[in-house]
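Duplicate of earlier report; BACK domain-containing protein input re-posted below.
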Amino acid sequence: MGFQGVTNTIHTLYAARKYCFYDLARACVNYLENNVCAEHIFSILQTAINFHEDRLLNLCMRLVINNTSEVINREDFKNVKKEIVVMILEQDVLNAKEIELFDRVMKWAASDCDRLKISAVPLNQRFALGDHNFALIRFPAMDGKEFATQVLDSGVLRKDEIIPILNVIMQPPGDKPNLPYPCQPRRQPCLAIDPLDTASVASSEITFIGEWRLHRFNSFGHIAVQSDERPADKRGFLGECKRSCSPPPRFNVDEDEFEKIVKNLRQLKRLAIDEAHFQWNKMHKANMNAHYR
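Output:
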């Protein structure tokens, strides 16, 4: 079955769901899953939310995570529903600077004020987003200069909020005071090795490309590379390839690095299998005890 573009497919899906044409609806969803892209990301994401299509939703959020800066700088971002803005702010992994995220969210809030027919003053912008959702912006993780020149000038923070955030930004790393705003910076959706830290990657499908082969891996957590496995002559040994707006990420690595990564992934897979067996045995034992009680 052929479909004429994403927009027409979404309209067809609405009609198919309304009149219970389930096979047609499934075909529409399959088409959307294969055509998730930045150009139509918000319309597809909203469709996934409306129809509770979890797989489609995950594909959309994977694209948002991997290409956050491109996505939030789209002109149609200001027209999305608040639930999508909140979903983005709730992510621990995003490919954009916090100050950029703040700027785009405030522009969305100003646009929402226009829809609500209220003036787009700072107090109303916070009202449009909601204080609980506003607290998802990680002000303490921002650069001090950016915070002083952009956030303070915007006037969205109250005076009693500014000093504690500035104290966190200016003090050396260590114990953080109890603030309503998260202090931990968001992670980037790629593998980057720091001399003192392990590497981590967002949940997604990752492809590692060696000289003669590739390895695909579905990550549902972190990929950690131990310090004794890192090449000593490199700060970051995984260079992310340039990619289009569509996930998943792909990494070029040499053969030695490829072997170390595959070894690591095998160990993670074994741990995941062991954990699954443990959980199954635990559930089975509970069911048997309940049955013979």
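Residues 1-61 form one domain.

Merging into the original ticket.
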